[in-house]
Amino acid sequence: MRYAEWCIAAPTLEADIAAAAMGLDDIGHSRVLYGSLRELGTPDVPDDPGSYANVPYLDRPWTDWTAFVAANGVLDSAFTLMIEALAGGNVEVLRSRLKKMLQEERYHAMHGRSWLRESRAASAVDQARRDAIVWIGPEDGDVDELHGKGILSLGVRELRRRLDEQVSGAPASTPIDWKAWDPVRRRIVAGGIDELTLNMLQGLAEKRYMPAGA
Amino acid sequence: MGFVRVHDEVQEYEVFARKTRLEPLRQVGAVVAPDDELAMAYARATYDEERWVEMMIVPKAAVIQLWAPGEAEA
Questions:
Q1: pTM of this prediction?
Q2: Least CB-CB distance to A107: which of B4, B6, B41?
Q3: CA A94, CA B42: separation in Å to the nearest integer?
């Protein structure tokens, strides 16, 4: 959804179109992932603000194009690495369904990489990278456990290594304090999306423009 | 109001695609980008509304023109 917010605000018309296309891709990817989870017997979560397990980077709309670029180049890459690990794991539903997602994400990665080269986005990259590392989680945590069972083909160390390889930035300077890590929402800092974002996600913002009685 | 240059240097790429293996590639449009990677991402985002079996981009600078409309055949 944050991509879509930039589909009329990016620096070039081509980037506007790419933002819209990548937003649409990612909506499709969420639908596939939710569908797969349902098939694997995961119960639906209630649709309230507290249940959104997004990274802090997505809590508020981005106010600067460099924030978009860092999200595209770093966070999107981290999510794709996890999808790659699931597609390479031993759960058949995921192995077969996530391939198309990876093909589409290739273009997101190219878009992100090129804009990272073009933009001075160092501080946004640092924040996005930190959120991505926190989202992947601590070593010897749930991700490594799933890797041990073969559900994920990559463990935490390898995921971090590949992310750094793709982002080619210096590793985050301040160490992460994992004590406050929330393993369900996969983040350290409290908070979440604001009401405006929630309304957009739930379609409430559109409903205001519907004719009465519709 | 002046224009703000977004990229220092860009080049134009022609986009070619086809829907079946039997038909020839045809030019479906163009994109402008600072490098090949962004040009690929833009071409795919802009022109993927149809089910192409193949898509490719060519830097316009790589095209060698023999003659243009209105010019006599060499």
A1: 0.87
A2: B41
A3: 28
